[in-house]
Specification:
The chain is an alpha/beta fold. The chain has one domain: Amidase signature (AS) domain (Amidase signature (AS) enzymes, Alpha-Beta Complex), CATH 3.90.1300. 39% of the residues lie in helices and 12% in strands. It has 17 helices and 11 strands. The protein has an 11-stranded mixed β-sheet with strand order 1-3-2-4-6-5-10-11-9-7-8, sandwiched between helices. Strand 7, helix 9 and strand 8 form a beta-alpha-beta unit. Helix 10 packs across helix 12. The longest helix is centred in the C-terminal third of the chain and has 23 residues.
């Protein structure tokens, strides 16, 4: 019975709970048992909220029994990446500097989940301050890929993707600064959506790169991504970058999900996918054939500035990180060194002890790019390249409904394989960075497996604030394949 429950999608589970066919309490108990059984090996969670989860589930069951109206996620167990503030427990960002930090408020998305009667199970592991592509940069624990315990789950939302894939929650929230939702979703064989910048409030998200960060869902299928977007999307006056309803209305993303996009035109960037492994390119070609059979037209386009995306990104993102992380100084909050000689030592030792190697590297890169004499040569030039990349997207979207490319140039790589080579690690995000620079929505969906039975992700990008169309395009492929129904069996590796 527990396995049957755990294999349901969010939407299926929500409907069963609402109909009284399944008790939320039973589902939460099954999820907590699954976490207890396998998470010592997987390492997806930094913390769990067992008491809160069971109390919330009991309250949902009582309300349903009383015939009260319920929220869109009533009784469904979900997880939160641990860089989003919540008063349910610590908000660590997987960093020693915030290991014991208790946020006094909930992030906007957490408020929305609670208002939708979701059951928040716990907070998931990540690369420290969301800086990484494998979750190996976590300062608190290691997370592995449920498909292969010797491989990474991707990053920085590796804990969220692993938890969804291993059935330790039914959906999760991640944050995406340069691919941190989509790349782990691709590695773990689940769906990951980065919404348009401004579509989901960043209030309560601990900032990494403020002009790039966006919160989005990690789910088992496209319908669940649409359901989660129905809950978290929309204007929030506490986030000045959150877009108004008048400018970009939020629709019901589930309403027309199963309607094909008529006359669909798909753009493929000429030559850009050549750097992917052969099995990735073959999976992409097969996916395009499926779309062609559905009546789509494939348009080859040139996006000449995509090759500069990785350089521009790692200047802009690190510059913003340098500014955002200046507040962690051992005085305001977070870790503080013991017995400092003076306030200079408070700042320097607290930061040295609290931050990990990758965070320090990015702070130094960003500080250098912003420094006197180098600002124009590096940071300002990167902003100009970003505008050129945005124009590339604008030009393509005048000819096509979407762009399709791989999520990552490889499937999940082995633990330790790239951690000592930052440049190789940065290149794993080569296909995902541009969407953040341009601010457009992008989704990764499962599209096959390699020879080692590791999932392959297909990435689809569309114009700003067209998530409804993007989800429909993704659903067209999903409805003709069954890759999203495959599940890893991590329990076999834990015995």
């Amino acid at each position: 019975m527990a396995d049957e429950l755990l294999n349901l999608t969010c939407k299926q589970l929500r409907d069963k709970i609402a109909a009284g066919a399944v008790k939320s309490t039973a589902v939460v108990e099954a999820v907590l048992a699954q976490i207890a059984d396998i998470d010592d090996t997987i390492g997806a969670y930094i913390s769990t909220f067992n008491k809160h989860a069971l109390e919330t589930a009991e309250a949902v069951d009582e309300k349903i029994a009383a015939g009260e109206s319920m929220g869109a996620l009533a009784g469904v167990p979900v997880a939160i990446k641990d860089n989003m503030c919540t008063d349910l427990g610590a908000t660590t960002c997987a960093s020693r500097i915030l290991e014991n930090f208790q946020a006094p408020y909930n992030a906007h998305v957490v408020e929305k989940l609670l208002a939708a009667d979701a059951v928040i199970i716990g907070k998931t592991n990540l690369d420290e301050f969301a800086m990484g592509s494998s979750t190996e940069n976590s300062g608190l624990k290691r997370t592995v890929n449920p498909w292969d315990m010797e491989r990474v789950p991707g990053g920085s939302s590796g804990g969220s993707a692993a938890a969804v894939a291993a059935r330790m929650c039914f959906a999760a929230l991640g944050s995406d600064t340069g691919g941190s939702i989509r790349q782990p979703a691709g590695f773990c064989g689940v769906v990951g959506l980065k919404p348009t910048y401004g579509r989901v409030s960043r209030f309560g998200l601990v900032a990494y790169g403020s002009s790039l960060d966006q919160i989005g869902p990690v789910t088992r299928d496209v319908a669940d991504a649409a359901l989660m977007m129905n809950v978290i999307a929309g204007r929030d006056k506490r986030d000045s970058t959150s877009v108004s309803e008048e400018m970009a209305p939020v629709c019901d993303y589930l309403e027309k999900l199963d309607e094909d996009v008529k006359g669909l035109k798909i753009a493929v960037a000429s030559g850009f996918n050549a750097g992917a492994d052969e099995h990735i390119r073959n999976a992409l070609a097969s996916a395009l054939d499926i779309y062609k059979n559905l009546g789509a037209q494939i348009v080859e386009v040139k996006m000449p500035h995509l090759d500069y995306a990785i350089a521009a990104y790692y200047l802009i993102a690190t510059a913003e990180a340098s500014s955002n992380l200046a507040r962690y100084d051992g005085v305001h909050y977070g870790h503080r060194t013991e017995s400092p000689a003076d306030y200079i030592e408070v700042y320097s030792k607290s930061r040295a002890e609290g931050f990990g190697a990758e965070v320090k590297r990015r702070i130094m890169l960003g500080t250098y790019a912003l420094s006197s004499g180098y600002y124009d040569a590096y940071y300002l030039k990167a902003l100009k390249v970003r505008n050129l990349i945005r124009k590339d997207f604008t030009n393509v979207f005048e000819k096509a409904d979407c762009i399709i490319m791989p999520t990552s140039p490889t499937t999940a790589f082995k633990l330790g394989e790239k951690i000592e080579d930052p440049l190789q690690m940065y290149l794993t995000d080569i296909y995902t960075l541009a969407a953040n620079l341009a601010g457009v929505p992008a989704i990764s969906i499962p599209c096959g497996f390699d020879a080692d039975n590791l999932p392959i992700g297909l990435q689809i990008l569309s114009p700003a604030f067209t998530e409804e169309k993007l989800l429909r395009i993704a659903r067209m492929f999903e409805s003709k394949t069954n890759y999203h129904t495959h599940r890893p069996k991590p329990a076999e590796h834990t015995k």
